[in-house]
Amino acid sequence: MEQEYKWRADQALLGGALLWASSRIGSQSRTIHMKSRYFDTADGFLKLRGAALRLRQENGVSVCCMKLRDETTPEGCRTHEEYQCEAETLEDGLLLLPGKGAPETLCAEAAKAPLMEQCAVDFMRVAILLQEHDTVCELALDQGELRRNGRAAPLCEIELEFLAGDAQVFHALASELAEHLSLEPEPDSKLKRAMAL
Known about the structure:
- It is built from six helices and eight strands, in the order βαβαβββααβββαα.
- The protein is of the alpha+beta class.
- The two termini are 29 Å apart.
């Protein structure tokens, strides 16, 4: 299960989050160009099953990802299953994802379905690895564009994802960051916002 907080941002808030992270001991950062394409059938086969399917280029590396059972708390913490593998095509990804824990039947049905690109997101991510004692999380500062059917909208957000350790420490870090910058939770995923264009 993946746990993450997502907040709305602007250029100033991205800069503030970067300063907050840089002041912490042991922070490490890298920049990633991410180009995501989301797929489903015309009648929403995956959406009806609570699933999202994505093929994303991450600095030129192609990664296939399936997400399931997305839930959001009032505080903005999102919890969902996420499975991913390196794959150049959706076909290859759907063959490999069950080996990563994704539902085999759903992957097999999706592989036979007439999947089409639904929307895309193109953005730059500054990913900062944070460690607080034995707890590790990643702060992501995302800025780019949501796209669908020739329409586009800007993307600017902050995410904090739990990687390992004590979940309570992770939640405390999220609370500290949100209070420090007066952040407003972003309740909708990139996919949902792109599909609303």
